[in-house]
Structure formats: structure tokens, C-alpha cells
Amino acid sequence: MGLDGNKCISRHSRVSETRAEMTTDTPLVTIGIPTYNRAALMARAVESAISQDYWRLEIVISDNASTDSTQAICADFARRDNRVRCIRRESNCKLIANFMSVLAQARGELFMWLADDDWLDRSYVSSCARFLIDNPEFALAYGSGKYYENGIFRFAAPETSLTAGSPSARVLSFYRQVVYNGAFYGLMRREIASIIPLRETLAADWFFVAAAACLGKLGHVQDVCIHRSIDGASKNIHELALKSGLGKVAAKDPHLMIAATVCKDIAWGSPTYRQLGVAARLMLGVQAFWAVFSRYCTPAYSRRLQEFLDYRHAVWRATYAVWRAFQRFLDRYVIWRFRRQR
After folding, report:
1. Distance CA 69, CA 36 (A)
2. pTM (two decimals)
3. Where are the domains of the chain?
4. Which of 211, 225, 304, 327 allows an S-S link to 196, with CB 3.0 to 4.6 Å?
5. Tens digits of per-residue pLDDT, 296-327?
6. What is the third-level CATH fold of 12-117?
7. How many CA atoms lie within 13 A of 40 on its CB side?
8. What is the pLDDT of residue 249?
9. d(Cα 283, Cα 280) in Å, to the nearest integer?
């Protein structure tokens, strides 16, 4: 009993110290949690948000017409903590529309998305918020990513900051290194997030973070982590491609489609890049296309070419073996016929 009491006192002291560091000028942070039919996992995500040591916080949950117990769990969280607001959709909308709904409902100066099957370290928000407060030239701050499959830790993804002075350099650097894109679930300035389009397309999170990099620097905060699930379709790029609306043929080469969309998005599609000018946009679009193509498509095509050459070589060897066997048969047949005629 005494030990538990000491733990409670220690926890209360830490929260008091954190609050003491903040003033009334401390920016409000909104954590947006879009969810659909993930009642058990969503509860873990919300608990990790509520437990943050950053006290100026609101949590907005958008229930995309779930048919499980999500609605009841959301209502319970709202009763327990007045910082939690729940939005219930009467009919199911698309994934991106649900993500945008929590951003539209956000009141915080700083904003972040949290997937309903992910969870945060207790100091994730406070560390990222402190970084953005101290560095006004940064648009987004994000922690390290740890990735889990079926609840089992699999790997930690490397993350780097994008701090170049040139917007084009930051965007190109992003496309040269992006894989799991943990930055999408970082803390960002809401005024910037609100002007970046988030479209229903494959790799929409890539395009969003690249646009954020064009508008400001991106900072990696090393001492905190976001814990991300890679279960389901999120671990298979081909399943994601099919779910995003690509046909079966296009879904076989999803990164080629992504590379082409990257070029289009930068060169003329997204209004975010207008500040660069026409020539710079075209140049950056081509460079970004090649950055994605060379990282993902070239190795895949080289592998397919090698497989084709190996297959062709195997077919040639088999054909040659059949031909040699046929020649031997003809030789023996000719000799047999010759002997019979004698």
C-alpha cells in the first residue's frame, strides 16, 4: 500500500512539474483519432492520448459509422474526460474524409493525427510541442517510430530531420528517404495542415508530408516514440493499391503509379508548390519522380529482368537438351534403317 502511494505521489509530482513549466500562453494541442470498427485497439490509442503529460490538450474522435462497440467506448471516454469530443457519422465515408473531419473540428494551434491502432509515449506531445515552440521555422515535429505486428515488436524505423534552407531540397530529401513515413503522425502547426490537400489516393500521406516540407522544416525528436501497428493491408502495398482504387494491372506496379503521381503533384497538381515557380516545379517534379522510381521501381524491374533472363536460359537449356535427344534418336534410327537394308 505504501509503495503504491509513493508511486501515485511521484506521478502527481511529475504532472505538477510539467504543468508548472507551461503557462497560459502554452498552445492548445488537438489529437485527432479517426476510427472505424476497432473498438479494442481504439481504446488503447485514446488512453495513450489522455495520459499525455501535456495538459492543454483536446482529443477529437471521429467514428466512421462503426458497427461494433466503438460508439459506446467513445461515449465512455467523453464522460470520463471533458477534453474528449466524439463525432459520430451516420453513414460511412471514405478513409481520407474521416481524417479530414477531425482536422476540421480541431481547435488547437498544434494538431496531430493518431491512428486508432497506434499509441504514444507519455511525453510524445510535450516533447514535440516544446520543439515547435522553440523552433518557429519548423512546420512539423515527430518522434521515432516503433513498428508492431500482431502486438509483437518487429523493428524501429530510422528517422531524420529535414532542415535544409531550400523548400525544394527538403522535398527532394523526403522522397529520397521516405519508407514508413512516421512524420505523418507527428505534431504540426494547424494553420499549415489546414492548407495542405489530403486526397483519396495511394500514398496520400507521402504527398501531405512532402507539401509540409515545402512550407517549413521538419524536425525529428529523438527521445520519444510513436508505436505503430503494421497489421492488415497497411503492411502490403499491393493490397493498399487495390483499396485505393487502382486496377489489378496498375496495382502490380504501385510504386510506378506513386512516382508518376509525385511528379504530377509537384509539377502542376498541388497548389502548395506555386511559390517555387513553373520551371522550379517542373525540375523538382522530375527529380522527385526519379527519386521514387530509382529506389523502388529500378530494383523491382532489375529483379524481374533477371528472373526473365534466368527463365529464358532455362528454356534454352531445356530446348537444347530436347534437340540433342532428338538428334541422337535420328542418328540411331538412320543406323538401324541402314543395317536392315543391308
Report:
1. 10
2. 0.82
3. 12-117, 121-306
4. 211
5. 988 877 776 677 777 877 888 888 888 888 88
6. Spore Coat Polysaccharide Biosynthesis Protein SpsA; Chain A (3.90.550)
7. 1
8. 63
9. 5
Task: Say how many C-beta atoms besides its own lie within 10 A of residue 287's C-beta.
Answer: 17
Question: Which pLDDT score, from 0 to 100, does residue 241 have?
Answer: 63
Q: Which of 153, 148, 140 is nearest to 191 (CA)?
A: 140
Sequence-separated (6 or more) residues with CB below 8 Å from residue 34? 61, 62, 64, 95, 98, 99, 101, 102, 113, 115, 116
Q: Which long-range contacts (CB under 8 A, 24 or more apart) does 296-304 make?
A: 296/255, 296/258, 296/259, 297/253, 297/255, 297/256, 297/259, 300/253, 300/255
Give residues with Cβ within 8 angstroms of 140, minimum separation 6.
132, 183, 186, 187, 188, 189, 192, 209, 212, 216, 218, 219
Q: Which three cell numbers stand for residue 135?
A: 523552433
Residue 15: pLDDT band with limits 50, 70, 90: very low
| Higher-scoring residue by pLDDT: 301, 138 | 138
Q: What is the pLDDT of residue 339?
A: 78
Assign 5 a pLDDT band (cuts: 50, 70, 90). Answer: very low
For 171, phi then psi, to 5°, come to -65, -45
What CA–CA distance (Å, rounded) separates 63 from 67?
A: 10
Spatial separation of the C-alpha atoms in residues 339 and 56, rounded to whole Å:
104
